[in-house]
Amino acid sequence: MRQKVIAGNWKMHKTNPEAIRLVTQLRKYMEKTPPRKTRVIVCPPFTALSVVHEAIKGSKIQLGAQNMFWEEEGAFTGEISPRMIKSTGAKYVIIGHSERRRYFKEDEHTINRKIHLALKNKLKVIHCIGETLEEREQNLTQDIIINQIEWGLKNITPEQMKNIIIAYEPVWAIGTGKTATPEQAQEVHAFVREMLNTIIGQNVGDRVTILYGGSVKPENAAGLLAQPDVDGALVGGACLEARSFFKIIQASEQV
Ligand code: 13P
Hints:
The two termini are 14 Å apart. Strand 3 (61-65), helix 3 (82-87) and strand 4 (92-95) form a beta-alpha-beta unit. The chain has helices at 16-32, 49-56, 82-87, 98-104, 108-120, 133-137, 141-152, 182-199, 204-207, 218-225, 242-254, and strands spanning 4-9, 38-43, 61-65, 92-95, 124-129, 164-168, 210-213, 232-235. It is built from eleven helices and eight strands. 1,3-dihydroxyacetonephosphate is lined by residues 9, 97, 169, 174-175, 213-216, 234-238.
């Protein structure tokens, strides 16, 4: 059985006091109605990782970062290493988010380097994949997914896949209010599993957790999460408010 995961990607939101307020509220909701089968992860900006770690101590909430650099250490002004992330108490790191690909020109090669380094440093990876609108309209969704798995996960072993979560985030659904229908999400998730089985082998696709991301909200979460190959959600906008994020967690508990 694959565990359900609801992860919140805060993107470039929340000062430290705002971050503490948000997780403290989330913690209260979760202590009142504890999730029984859903793993909950929050991914605040780097600046808030330590204070959020402090605020979630002793709770079921887990912590992740949104990005990291591909080298261990050195003269890389403005960058953050996996060891720095680990030292805040974070256990996860999002790698290859479409906003990183788009604004910072991250490609499969850099993403692959980051994934290897994150795993070497014992961070679990949330690896984002997904097609743009133009790619979908040109019927290229499957080719894009194959490319992202083949090169983004190059030389990743079936054993290492135990520490990787895949997040399918169609770029056209991110921050646009346009969600993939449950059927569209299901179709791609099933394809991702099949490709993981083919490219990485040993039926890893059947075991790996695959999240859906892109305008997930309390109103549409249940339909998406009810799909057999949708194991959870990577939430953007709706995770910035404890109540709506918690409602998505509850939707996951009910499927
Ligand atoms: P939205 O939920 O705001 O569309 O963002 C999704 C996302 O990019 C999560 O990583």
